Amino acid sequence: MRYAYAITAALLVGGTTLALTSNSTSVVAQTAQNEGMSAAAPRGAPVSLADMVERLQPAVVNISTRQRVQVQNQNPFAGTPFGSLFGGDDGSGGAPQTRQAQSLGSGFIISPDGYIVTNNHVVAPGARGAIVDSITVILPDRTEYTAKLIGTDQRSDLAVLKIQAPKPLPFVKFGDSTRSRVGDWVVAIGNPFGIGSTVTAGIISALHRNTGGADRFIQTDASINQGNSGGPMFDMNGNVIGINSQILSPTGGNVGIGFAIPAEEAIPVIETLRKGGSVKRGYLGIQISQLSDDMADSLGLPKNRGEFVQSVEAGKGADKAGIKAGDVIVRVNGQSVTPDETLSYIISGQPVGATVPIDIIRNGKPMTVRALIGERPSEDELANFAQPSQDDFSDQDAQSVKQAAQQLLGIAVQTLTPNIARQLALPAETTGVVVTAVDPSTDAGAKGLRRGDVITQANYERVTNEADLNRLAQAAKDAKRSAVLLQVTRRGTPPAFVPIRLRGE
């Protein structure tokens, strides 16, 4: 189904000239409302972008892939005497079938001999087990070329392609994204929804925007939609300062929040891929979380300064340096950890094999360690790490919930015994208290604590029974803190620190 949207605006100026003569027929001379009009451009912006777009558009291309993916054929007669007639020996379903799939996106030519930049997700398999058979690049004049994949980098979501053309191709060059400022005008060119080359314009809405990884993005209100991925973002000098990559949208369409990979981040990756190399990034071997308001309050630390270590991978750089779960990392190699300069971003940029100083806060005391930076595993390797258990221990009786509602943390607990530890698949020597009920109206309930969770620490002190937990919660209240930092172990997952607000806070 196709939809077309149009908005028409008219500026009413000028007027009507009326000529009157006595004893004769009146003659009316009318002028078009828009006769001789010219809109004033905003300060610093051109009256029209047409000349610039005319020169840039030939270097922006459409990219499509053909893929094969195996899907299980659904047998409508499964479970009946006729089930085996439709491809399944046991009658439960048909044999797998190979089906064709496509992906669409954008890209841009960066050299006259046909090197092209796009997003990795534009040319990557779209489903588990899918195989990309071919990549096609379509120029604005509708000339098509089969592209060779030179290299990809999943972490930065970048890819480099190469096409062979009989003559030099139009291309564009990168600009300096470090000089970009919030409020600067930008132009995006791409292939939204596969409808063809489309130009949109807007401003830079934010810089250094972090969306949850090690990357930082340029945020723009220029219309970015599905299919714009991999297309260029230009400044008013016609230089590429970003590569359109993501959108934030509750509907799947443009809502004025798009993200582009800054040129300063993309250029080193593209040059490495173009030479046939792979991108190496720093790695410490830790699981981290943002220092939320509740967590900062429970630790008595300032907000927006540092990130919290949830767990440490054995044998990696952090472990060898003595970094422990519960530490707060505030500085790496002299660079402060902030919401804009995240720990992942800083570590990724450190040279592999370098030894760097890391400033941490442990139990409220600052200290410095030196860590050897390792090489970050591939995204596929990281994705294959153990997933959290889906077992649910949430069944709890009303009496236990009533007991939980009377506690400062909204949690009812009992001492963890070796027998209970075995039932929860925990080592028999594990010590702590097991949650028997959670008041759903409290912060503990809101943050997902549930029956069967094991609390081993509270504000870095070991908890072995209910009295320990209640004492430490009361101590936090007496110290005018509104939250307690709990270390929680759940079956099938490593221990995690969770800040829980006290009742009434």
UniProtKB/TrEMBL annotation:
It comes from the Bacteria. Keywords: Hydrolase, Periplasm, Protease, Repeat, Serine protease, Signal, Stress response. It is an enzyme of class 3 (hydrolase). One of its GO terms (molecular function) is serine-type endopeptidase activity. It holds the Pfam family PDZ_2. It catalyses: Acts on substrates that are at least partially unfolded. The cleavage site P1 residue is normally between a pair of hydrophobic residues, such as Val-|-Val. Residues 269-346, 398-491 form the PDZ domain. GO terms for biological process: proteolysis. Gene3D superfamilies: 2.30.42.10, 2.40.10.120. Substrate binds at H121, D157, G227, N228, S229. Belongs to the peptidase S1C family. This is Probable periplasmic serine endoprotease DegP-like. It comes from Sphingobium nicotianae. The lineage of its organism: Bacteria, Pseudomonadati, Pseudomonadota, Alphaproteobacteria, Sphingomonadales.
